[in-house]
């Protein structure tokens, strides 16, 4: 059996209706996992439509509408997973938003909203997943190079992603007694999702600062998640895996 065979494993990726999260859950699905797609209903219904499209690539997926900032909804999601799938083996905390503005212009709401979704959301899902995570499970949190370097105009986003690193280390200590590992992935600039919307001149400027001279491919983040969720990473916990082409070498 391949170390990247997840047959029989129950995998939840939050915020998996599009972007990196969608590619992650599909990758787990191709490797035999029992997949759970999480989305949050928006007024236009786009997230639900995107989640349905992701589900078409999966075998018997469970699609769950859940706002990760709402502990009651997260608890209900975990109960549904327990009732319908019997437990959880791999959790990827991927839900996140971004709203750049300088500190001088940033409103308290703009700061708090990003913290609420990115950090509190990761905490809520981790906490509510603990009772249903099986022995030997995996938790993977999505941080960012921004949380390590503090990028201009990202006081809210950088703060949330730096705090996720701290939360990862605390979670790794507390969940070790259940033989559950907790690690973080810190992507750099990737050719999908948040980085995709950067103006061309900004993208080119960042490329000049990246030793490998290019943006990352989404598959390179997916591969990192597959590795950390696999038996190959059984003795790695509390670690931050940088996938950024050398942009940050901390």
Structure write-up:
By secondary structure, this protein is an alpha/beta fold. The protein has 8 helices and 7 strands. It has a 7-stranded parallel sheet, sandwiched between helices. Helix 1 (19-30) packs across helix 8 and helix 4 runs parallel beside helix 6. The longest helix is centred in the middle third of the chain and has 22 residues, at 108-129. It is globular and about 45 Å long.
Main beta-sheet annotation: 7 strands, parallel
Q: What is the chain-wise order of helices and strands?
A: EHEHEHEHEHHEHHE
The total of helices stands at 8
Strands, count: 7
Q: Could you name the ranges where pLDDT drops below 50 across 5 or more consecutive residues?
A: none
Shape: globular
Relative strand content: 15-25%
Q: Report the end-to-end length measured between terminal Cα atoms.
A: 35 Å
Roughly how much helix do the residues carry, as a percent range?
Answer: 40-55%
Task: Please state the average pLDDT score.
Answer: 95
Query: Could you give the order of strands across the largest sheet?
Result: 3-2-1-4-5-6-7
From the helix content, strand content and strand pairing, which structural class follows? alpha/beta
> Mind telling me the C-alpha Rg?
17 Å
């Amino acid at each position: 059996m391949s170390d990247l065979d997840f047959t029989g494993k129950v995998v939840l990726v939050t915020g998996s209706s599009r972007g990196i999260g969608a590619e992650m859950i599909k990758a787990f699905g191709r490797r035999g996992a029992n997949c759970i797609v999480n989305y949050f209903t928006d007024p236009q219904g786009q997230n639900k439509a995107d989640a349905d499209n992701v589900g078409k690539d999966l075998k018997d997926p469970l699609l769950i509408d859940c706002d990760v900032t709402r502990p009651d909804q997260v608890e209900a999601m975990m109960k549904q997973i327990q009732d319908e799938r019997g437990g959880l083996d791999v959790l990827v905390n991927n839900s996140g938003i971004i709203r750049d503005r300088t500190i001088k212009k940033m409103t308290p709401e703009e700061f708090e909203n990003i913290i609420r979704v990115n950090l509190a959301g990761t905490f809520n899902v981790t906490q509510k997943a603990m009772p249903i995570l099986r022995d030997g499970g995996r938790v993977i949190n999505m941080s960012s190079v921004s949380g390590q370097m503090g990028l201009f105009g990202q006081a809210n986003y950088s703060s949330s992603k730096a705090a996720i690193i701290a939360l990862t280390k605390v979670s790794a200590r507390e969940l070790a007694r259940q033989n559950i590992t907790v690690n973080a992935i810190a992507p750099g600039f990737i050719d999908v999702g948040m980085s995709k919307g950067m103006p061309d001149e900004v993208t080119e400027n960042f490329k000049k600062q990246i030793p490998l001279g290019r943006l990352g491919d989404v598959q390179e983040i997916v591969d990192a998640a597959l590795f950390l969720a696999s038996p190959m990473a059984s003795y790695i916990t509390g670690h931050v895996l940088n996938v950024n082409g050398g942009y940050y070498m901390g």
